[in-house]
Amino acid sequence: QVQLVESGGGLVQAGGSLRLSCAASSRTAFGTYAMGWFRQAPGKERQFVAGISGIFGTTSYADSMKGRFIISRDNAKNTLYLEMNTLKPEDTAVYYCAARPDGRAGSVGLEYDFWGQGTQVTVSS
Q1: Tens of pLDDT along 53-107?
Q2: Within a 10 A sphere around the Cβ of 11, how many other Cβ atoms?
Q3: Model confidence over 17-39: pLDDT tens digits?
Q4: Is residue 59 a contact partner of residue 65, using CB atoms and an 8 Å limit?
Q5: 94, β-bridge pairs
Q6: Among 87, 99, 85, residue whose Cα is nearest residue 28
Q7: Beta carbons of 51 and 60 less than 8 angstroms apart
């Protein structure tokens, strides 16, 4: 089974930046998998953040993240990244990475087969 491990979360003041990482197990056909970031804030449902396809490397973002967040991947390192800038208190959530073997990135969480354990991001006001 594919294993995904997120890291890089922490406590940041509003306006600050963080970069999250998601390391995939070496057995993962990482370069062919679509990857995505999702988040879940206290009292709210899981929300799509960003995705990147495995075929074309095409990126997509939820509207509230456009211009602030950047999703990228390093296939040689089997690692997915999420650069978060100009963080706001409403960005506070547990952030999860997910993998979709068919390579087609999407915003629906159920279409992703593998998930990490999550990393906490807290933005203070």
Answers
A1: 997 899 999 998 989 999 999 999 999 999 999 999 999 999 999 999 988 889 9
A2: 12
A3: 999 999 999 777 899 999 999 99
A4: no
A5: 40, 120
A6: 99
A7: yes
Full 3-state SS string of the chain: CCCEEEECCEEEECCCCEEEEEEECCCCCHHHCEEEEEEECCCCCCEEEEEECCCCCCEEECHHHCCCEEEEEEHHHCEEEEEECCCCHHHCEEEEEEEECCCCCCCCHHHCCEECCCEEEEEEC
> For residue 110, with 0-12 CB atoms within 10 Å meaning exposed, 13-18 middle and 19 or more buried, which class applies?
exposed
